[in-house]
Amino acid sequence: MRKDQKVYGYVRVSTREQHEDRQIAALLEMGVPKENIFIDKLSGKDMERPQYKKLIGKLRKNTVLYIKSIDRLGRNYRELCDQWRIITKEKGADIVVIDMPILDTRKEKSLLGTFISDLILTLLSYIAENEYRMIHQRQAEGIAAAKARGVKLGRPRLPLPSDFYKVHEKWKAGEISTKDAARELDMPVSTYWYKAKKYQKMMD
């Protein structure tokens, strides 16, 4: 990179449970100063990302944006292309996609080079979006097929406590209140009420 170019990095993880360490390490290895790395721990379903907005405000000519992979900019074809256009055309900044060296706008500034880079981006964005849709389609088809086979989905139900029936009989006889029954079974009142009513229906 040229000495007069200021470099930035952008990291996005889909949820707060994911770790950004791998992306940050890749950016640091490319020479991006740690203080110039912007991190969003939000869903990628839209572009309402506060750190990304701050980053965009800093980009201009003679700045370079590093990202680990192209899907950090957006999740679908339209968003990826829109953000690429904003960064490279409106802001005049360069983009370097670490996992895809061919997507490095610093390499070729001619009209043909820009055309090839944009064409490759369009193709990759289209493939990424279709892959995303196919994954969700297969998941939906898998769920539908499982339901058709009678497979029950969702969290497995926890068994009732061993003393549930004894406590329930006391509650049913009016010897203890709902609150007392729930406390004896170490469960929330609403949970006990739901299980008690369901158990009663099974017994009737």
Can you offer a commentary on this structure?
The chain is an alpha/beta fold and 204 residues long. It folds into 2 domains: 6-131, Resolvase, N-terminal catalytic domain (Rossmann fold, 3-Layer(aba) Sandwich); 164-203. It has 7 helices and 4 strands, in the order βαβαβαβαααα. The chain has helices at 21-29, 50-58, 77-90, 111-148, 164-172, 178-184, 189-203; strands at 6-13, 37-41, 63-67, 94-97. The protein has a 4-stranded parallel β-sheet, sandwiched between helices. Helix 3 runs antiparallel to helix 4.
CATH C-level class of the largest domain: Alpha Beta
Query: If helices are DSSP runs of H or I spanning 4 or more residues, what is the number of helices?
Result: 7
Overall radius of gyration: 27 Å
Low-confidence stretches: none
Helix content: 40-55%
**Which of globular, elongated, flat, extended, rod-shaped describes the shape?**
elongated
Q: Tell me the series of helices and strands, N- to C-terminal.
A: EHEHEHEHHHH
What CATH architecture label of the largest domain applies?
3-Layer(aba) Sandwich
* Beta-strand percentage range: 5-15%
Number of strands: 4
